Amino acid sequence: MATQDEANAILPTRTRRQKRSQTATLVLMGATPFAVLGLDPLHSEVRVFRDLQACQTALPGAQDYCETLNAEAAERHPSIAPKYTSRHQCESDFAHVTVNSSCENGWCGIDDLSVCERTADGYYRPPFSGFLVDQAILDGTYEGTKPAPESLDDRQLQPVYSISDETLSSSGDEGQGSTYRSHTPFLWHYVMANGQYLGNQNLRDPVTRTKSQLAANTSRTFTGTSQRGGFGSTARQTMQAARS
Questions:
Q1: From 27's CA, which of 56, 89, 101, 211 has a CA 20 to 30 Å away?
Q2: What's the confidence (pLDDT) of residue 126?
């Protein structure tokens, strides 16, 4: 058993250790808000633009830069976009009405629809529907920093695609059960080429995703007619994860 003198010598040491431990805890706790505020190195904020005009509206002082960002994303589109062996399968995922005022009396003109395009090698792919840019790149434009678009990796700049609400609302796979048919033909959503969900057509605010989610895969090819395990399934899963 320790004497009173020994106890008196031990207590200050323990107190110092406890203070150091508490200080370390406070430092770690103090680091948490930085991750919450977007400084987490594993995550990035990205901004999605429907078209060139949307970018120019958001960056009125960088009109020309928006043009080069849009052009570079469009150039990456053929090598990144998912490909399908049949038009039907492609359009079951992506075809939708793009103009809300169109389709009067239930009839839509071809110019009012977003449909898949045929590639030079006989496949089908969704059309280029806009692009995403790392928010840090956009913030830098206000300080005059404008890195060449071709120097940006796919996590910083890539094309995005608009997927039908019907595909994301599906309750079963084609030929495998019932499918919910959307009563809102004008509603569609933004997704990346890898199926990562970004938000619906009204998306305006930056979106936070992990850098691994933002990594664009090389173009995937979908064959057959069933959607089971296909692009639509991936998009639904990532939408559910984003909303949870």
A1: 211
A2: 94
